Amino acid sequence: MLKAINVYKEIKDNLILQDINLNIEKGDKIGLVGLHNSGKTMLLDILSGKTRPSKGKVIIEGEKTLNRKKIAYVPQVPLLNLSLTPRDLVKYIEGNEHFLEELGINPKSKIKNLSLNEKKRIFLALSLNFSPEYLLIDEINDDEYLKKFFLNFEGGIIVTSHSLRKIWDLISKVIILNKGKIVYSRNKEELLYKIIKIDKKYFSSNLKNHDYDMEGDYIEIWLKRNEKIDQIKGEETLVDPDDAILRYYLRD
């Protein structure tokens, strides 16, 4: 289990992360979601061991220090020597070229001629030489090779995105960051909502206990998708999970 325990990160009196506690178990597929500057990339930097927290610690259970070889980290923008080839990089770490081919990378190509997604895959391929148990991906960018590897990887995974919709089919659990704090950490299904739109004249006092909006002559009642209200009929619309996140977890 990869664990963050009471993690804080402060840079020049700016608190980037605060009181972060989370566990990533083998087999977990977690989506880390939040707005721009919510702290997603910094959290991955700390979980991977690339950056040290200002307070708190990250450990792999049963070990006193973080073994970075057990963690494959694919950054949002990989920094690679553009004059080299992927084969050069693999030789440098005395690795296996097979992982490049598995991820659709031509070992002889010049890195300067590759796309961002291909550079991310090179980073992953280099990490696979150490048989990592955890995979951290900062934005998956609709890359089919990364998605396929993601789904087949047997260790614990966490992937960031500003949109839950983009990674919905890849994950089972969601962590939402808002201004450096974890505000949600549960299964993705709990973010599934629907709206029932009814005429205002049918809006009774017992409905005021529900979350609702008034839209002209209509009332829009927000409910979990599996929730029902007896004797209420109206136009039903499924809510995009990203809209539910904005409404309930990313408000000031």
TrEMBL record:
Keywords: ATP-binding, Nucleotide-binding. One of its GO terms (molecular function) is ATP binding. Residues 2-204 form the ABC transporter domain. It comes from the Archaea. SUPFAM superfamilies: P-loop containing nucleoside triphosphate hydrolases. InterPro entries: AAA+_ATPase, ABC_transporter-like_ATP-bd, P-loop_NTPase. This is ABC transporter domain-containing protein. It comes from Acidianus manzaensis.
